[in-house]
Amino acid sequence: MSRVRRLLPLLGCVLLGCVLLTLYAPEGLLRRDEPPPVPAGWSPYDLAESIEAAQLRLRRHPDDAAVWASLGNMYLEQARRTTDTAYYQRAQGAFERSLRQPTGDGEPYIDATIGMGALANARHDFAGALRWAERAREAAPFRWALYGVLTDAHLELGHYEQAETTLRRMLDGHPDLASFTRAARLEHLHGRPGPARDLLHRACVIPGDPAEYAFCQWQLGELAWNNGDPRTALTAYTQALAADPEHASARAGKARAEAALGHTDQALRDYATAVARSPSFVIEYGELLHHLGDGDGARRQYAVFTAQHKLLAANGDTDNLAMGTFEANHGDADTAVRHLRAEWKRRQSVEVADALGWALHQAGHHTEAAAYTARADALGGRNALFAYHRGEIEHALGHTAAARAHLTRAMSINPHFSPAGAARARALLAETP
């Protein structure tokens, strides 16, 4: 499974803003005495028109700090929808122009300050995001969007207690769409899919435009997929695409669900469409091609990934998590360990712990690997890939009972979590007494 794809929920939350209701139920973040959401319908959405309108306004009023900040956020939204990181530089330029414009009180335009924090999160500069958000909080503590930036940064750095504290502050101050999605993510990390699903259903009745609705439906699809329900996931991804046909993440999710349901031809067509819009899904596409016996097609997709990340590295934007995961699964294990040890020094999230543990296992360091994969499970989340990795590592250590328990757990959570991984888990379970 591509780590790039697994980070996409963060980018979505980065761009959606603030926070939701207070933490009511002891097992979660949500009351259960409210009516279910009503399905929404949308016409196709074209963010490019809004960007063009903002650019036209700025040609006439180049000193409008608010419009520059709005344009920066639209570029970030475009990056989220397409996963095209080229929009980051445009967003940075717009935010910087906003910050340079004088305001009535002489302070930098606060939306641009928050936007710079969101941009830092999107670029995986989580420490930088904290600095921008704290700067915004000092100037305007009741601008709730800044708490979204703080929450996202703390989550990615592995500061889970700080993330929850910040989320509570957001919930108390301003419940909104971004609050629901962030709270749902926290519920999922703690292994509570029911409350996470309820939160996302409520989020889906809040959006004011099709792109936000598509984002909510995509998140519902991801939640259903991660919990082993490809049919429900397919429905959600399809609804996301009905609202926003250009939503690359939903297109890739639809392909993933179709492959799990045996609709192979349609899955391949949807993957081809997704990677044409965004290279973030080339590994996922390649892994399916390899599983289907198309080794040449898989290698072509992996070559696209390698070229993309060489270009990013040349610009100083190396993604150690994505590169380390790729090397662990399809390249050199020692190189993977180097990338992921570097990432672990930057942030200690459960995703990085799992990736590093798997790379260490692939490099033959099974005992050290087991410690990291155990840490990845520490929050109690339901993650089939994490459980599979623990099972493989316990098998390598000769711990037969523990291996069987983790592999069984992986398949019970999501028997379709990875074409190769699921097949390997079934094989190990068949041979393990």
Automatic annotation (TrEMBL):
**What PROSITE patterns does the record tag this protein with?**
PROKAR_LIPOPROTEIN
Which InterPro entries is this protein grouped with?
TPR-like_helical_dom_sf, TPR_rpt
Taxonomically, the superkingdom here is: Bacteria
SUPFAM superfamilies, per database record: TPR-like (SSF48452)
* PANTHER family for this protein: CELL DIVISION CYCLE 16,23,27, CELL DIVISION CYCLE PROTEIN 27 HOMOLOG
- This one is known as Tetratricopeptide repeat protein
* Species this chain originates from: Streptosporangium roseum (strain ATCC 12428 / DSM 43021 / JCM 3005 / KCTC 9067 / NCIMB 10171 / NRRL 2505 / NI 9100)
